[in-house]
Design a protein that fits this description.
11 helices, Chloramphenicol Acetyltransferase, 558 residues, OB fold (Dihydrolipoamide Acetyltransferase, E2P), 7-stranded mixed sheet, 22% helix, 4-stranded antiparallel sheet, alpha+beta
Length: 558
């Protein structure tokens, strides 16, 4: 049995065309014109058929390879008549011209025939009639998409129309740069070689005084001129009419857009932008996907992100839109900028951070007794000593004792940022929405200083006078609802921080002291943390230290 190497046939001038699908495997018995591989350029996809029958011995290419004319595709073991026929052919890579034309779906524009450079006349602007180029033998090919409109400026190589035969779609590029003056066809028309396509006004070289005789006599010279002095078009291959009707049936391996109805340029744009075509709604004829569909999809995603609507990129079904007016009278209240930013941040943090919340009660009986005893001194200093400064000091002490809480996850996902400073944010309810000013170096400040600074920042927040720097750099956040009420809540971690503490309303509760129940003032606390950075044991140690400090503030001196 003879072994023959099957090469890549003439690609109509295309080079480095990507292999997007391999249609056969070693051991497969194939017939003449059976597809071997599918190639895709930036203009079209093309199936390369086998010129002979036989058994596949080995593959010479892989998906993702870039091939040019003459590159080896596979080794084929010929059988019977095919083997004897190959013995008469001194060129094992010879492929029937009709098969070659069927394999090439790229529509390229050839360069004008060589002319004597000394005889060329100056360039001129003129309107030229652009015809349909050679379609490789296909006839009455349908126009399925117009890529330009009258008045559009096009560059050489820009797609003008998309045609579709029974096997593949092809984009017809412009042979010159200029402005589209007139379109000679419409979607649904049937066209053949030489039919009028468009009139383009562009700069072209005037007719040469004398042509190079060798160029005019060359069998490779273009045969269909656009108009006097215009560039000619080279043959563009069309798919074999005997093949299956699947259009652009293959995309890269694993691409969920492989079965959608779209041209090669649309697929390329979708790949570049990371868009899954199967998620789009086609707007082209017969549910064909267009470039505008891809662009509109990406534009909407960007708009959703900018407006805080994150559901479109998370795979979570969006909340359906409801007309509430049918249930009764309503009023539309516009969200403030702060409210919209808070909504976007909370959604982002909730979706990105794996939350865990632990709860505990701190006995603040002695703390409250001491705080109330300092009321007169606080009035002399002109400050109000609330429970907040004690919570800040206790949190700072716990962050020092358990450094695993004083970190942030690095953006590369491979490192933790360990912080050697302690800045704590305090959530403040304001008329404009939730604000979180940051108190810096809490571990280095006393209770009086913390009381004054927290009151000053809270006032600035309510008056809308906080600067951006006043709300940046926190290691940890305290959110207190103690003045409002409640037995507990689950606060949302404010990334890039990894933990936040919720404070609820203190209550007198009976606590067993080993001999009897006695009334104690208990403060409900909750700590939510990012489970990627903090484990339950870390939170247990953090909470234990904080509760012990709040129960006996003398521990702050240790």
């Amino acid at each position: 049995m003879a072994i023959e190497i099957i090469p890549v046939p003439d690609l109509g001038g295309a080079d480095k065309v990507e292999v997007i699908e391999i249609c056969v495997q070693p051991g497969d018995v194939i017939e003449v014109e059976q597809s071997l591989v599918v190639l895709e350029s930036d203009k079209a996809s093309m199936e390369i058929p086998s010129p002979i029958a036989g058994t596949v011995v080995g593959l010479k290419v892989n998906e993702g390879d870039a091939l040019s004319e003459g590159d080896a595709i596979l080794e084929l073991e010929l059988a019977g008549e095919a083997a004897s026929a190959s013995g008469d052919d001194s060129t094992p890579s010879a492929v029937d011209s009709g098969v070659v034309e069927a394999a090439v779906a790229e529509v390229e524009v050839a360069q004008p025939a060589a002319v004597d450079s000394e005889a060329e006349a100056p360039a001129a602007v003129e309107a030229q009639l652009v015809p349909v180029p050679d379609l490789g033998g296909s006839d009455a090919v349908e126009v399925i998409e117009l890529c330009v409109s009258v008045g559009d400026d096009v560059s050489e190589g820009d797609s003008l129309v998309v045609l579709e035969s029974d096997k593949a779609s092809m984009e017809i590029p412009s042979p010159l740069s200029g402005k589209v003056i007139e379109l000679k066809l419409s979607v649904g028309d049937k066209v053949s070689d030489g039919d009028d396509l468009a009139v383009i006004e562009g700069v072209v070289a005037a007719a040469p005084a004398a042509e190079n005789p060798s160029a005019s006599s060359s069998p490779e010279a273009p045969s269909s001129a656009v108009s006097s002095g215009s560039a000619a078009t080279a043959p563009a291959a069309a798919p074999s009419p005997s093949a299956s009707p699947q259009v652009d049936a293959a995309a890269s391996a694993g691409d969920s857009s492989a079965s959608v109805y779209a041209g090669p340029s649309v697929r390329k744009l979708a790949r570049q932008l990371g868009v899954d075509l199967s998620k789009l709604k086609p707007s082209g004829p017969r549910s064909r996907y267009t470039k505008d569909d891809v662009r509109s999809y990406v534009k909407q995603l960007v708009a959703d992100v900018n407006s805080g609507k994150v559901s479109g990129g998370t795979g979570i079904p969006p909340v359906p839109e409801i007309d509430f007016s049918k249930f009764g009278e309503i009023e539309m209240v516009k969200l403030s900028k702060i409210a919209k930013l808070t909504s976007a941040n909370m959604s982002r943090n909730w979706l990105n951070v794996p939350h865990v919340t632990q709860f505990d009660d701190a006995d603040i009986t002695e703390l409250e007794s001491f705080r109330k005893s300092m009321k007169a001194e606080a009035e002399k200093r002109g400050v109000k000593l609330t429970p907040l400064p004690f919570l800040l000091k206790a949190a700072a002490a716990a962050l020092e004792a358990e450094p695993s809480f004083n970190v942030s996850l690095h953006a590369d996902g491979e490192h933790l940022v360990q912080k050697n400073y302690i800045h704590i944010g305090v959530a403040v309810d304001t008329p404009n929405g939730l604000m979180v000013p940051v108190i810096r170096d809490v571990d280095k400040k006393g209770l009086w200083e913390l009381a004054a600074e927290s009151a000053e920042l809270a006032a600035k927040a309510r008056d809308g006078k906080l600067m951006p720097r006043d709300m940046q750099g926190a290691c940890f956040t305290i959110s207190s609802l103690g003045a409002i009420g409640g037995n507990g809540f689950t606060p949302i971690v404010n990334a890039p921080e990894v933990a936040i503490m919720g404070v609820s309303k203190a209550q007198i509760k009976p606590v067993w002291n080993g001999a009897e129940f006695e009334p104690r003032q208990m403060l409900p606390l909750s700590v939510s943390y990012d489970h990627r950075a903090i484990n339950g044991a870390n939170c247990g140690r953090f909470f234990t230290h904080m509760v012990s400090v709040l129960a006996d503030i003398r521990r702050l001196l240790l």
